[in-house]
Amino acid sequence: MLELLLRPREERRLLEGHLWVFRDELSKIPDAEPGTLARVVTRDGYVVGTGFYNPLSKIAVRLLGGDVERVDTAFFVERFTAALTLRARVLPGESAFRLIHGESDLLSGLIIDLYADVAVVQMLAAGMDRHRDDIVNALRTVFPNLKAIVEKNTMQTRKKEGLELREGGIWGDVPEFVDIIENGIKIRVDITTGQKTGYFLDQKVNRRVVGALSPGKRVLDCFCNVGGFALNAAQQGAAEAIGIDSSQAAVDAAMANAERNELTNARFVKANVFDDLRQRVDAGETWDIVVLDPPSFAKSRTAIKGAIAGYSELNRTAMKLLAPGGILVSSSCTQLVSESMLLDILYREAARLKRRLRLLHRGEQAPDHPILLAMPETQYLKFLVFDIVGT
Ligand code: SAH
């Protein structure tokens, strides 16, 4: 097996459990096919671990957690079985869940979401891409009732790994849509046109939190996608739930989901949330609950300033729509914006408006998206629930 030598004193982070070896941490970048299995060793011969090597990528090695002799179908069967056992413990009985959350399942560069009998796979790195057939075979072994496997390899990050963008069925008969049940609500997932792998499974538990606060309330769900928070609010007896999204496809799907569940108290509109919220403020509207769940605002460190400006504006405008006693639900999926940064933004914007925010609940990504403590990169979702205290 190819051996890669670490530069002196670069092993500490890796020995503490981080799974990425950066290019500049290796003493040489030997030529090899992207995705080749390689062993990473220190100068005194200590094996730090085995992983997929990609001489084209800034992340030169993605370790697989331990000294792996070979990667084949059996390797993936073992990892998928372990991952499934965990999901069955932390989120039992779900028809849709994340089976593999990359590094957190010691499979850097691989994401797999299960939607009933359809698996959606994302390979973000060359090593996983090379083992596509093993991944397909292992999924079919672990899930004998599977009907189809779809790849959604459209993430721009693939280019950094020297991979092309690809999507479509890779095994079985891909259905046009899959019906799942989440929190007792029927959701139709459009695998082909849906965003990410088809649905945002990471907010599952947080949607229950919003649902529980909603009876009798008027709820504005900003960035609603196919209706997640608004549908949970409506199902739990909101007086009215309105979802806003800029994607017509998402709004259409959300309306169809409301109908499917006979929720006449949910409505959806296509709009840019930034403009729409401003117009609602100008019109003097007030809401009992405003949910903000925007897309990621920064993929790189250079974009953090812009992201902070975006969160500041959104949260400030949302607060203007809330009377005392009103609830602000502020979520962020930008990995580079930490929870304490988000809290700081809310603190500053509330102070500007002379509002007192009280933190009632903090959540994060659902437990089928577990967080590997040694890799902060696996923690991305923040979910904060406040009420406005005072007069
Ligand atoms: N809350 C959703 C997930 C939100 S994902 C759920 O529970 O499933 C972010 C959504 O924001 C996407 O659906 C995207 O179409 C939408 N979006 C992105 N920019 C937007 C904008 N400026 N205005 C309105 N929607 C936007």
If you had to describe this structure to a student in words, what would you say it looks like?
There is one protein chain. The chain is an alpha/beta fold and 391 residues long. It has eleven helices and 19 strands. The site of S-adenosyl-L-homocysteine has 19 residues, from helix 7, strand 14 and helix 9.
Q: What are the salient characteristics of this protein?
A:
391 residues, alpha/beta, Archaeosine Trna-guanine Transglycosylase, Chain: A, domain 4, Transcription Regulator spoIIAA, Rossmann fold, 3 domains, seven-stranded mixed β-sheet, 11 helices, 29% helix
Total of DSSP H or I helical runs spanning 4+ residues: 11
Ligands in the model, by name, code or SMILES, are: S-adenosyl-L-homocysteine
Helix content: 25-40%
Q: Quickly give the CATH architecture of the largest domain.
A: 3-Layer(aba) Sandwich
Shape from CA axes? Answer: globular
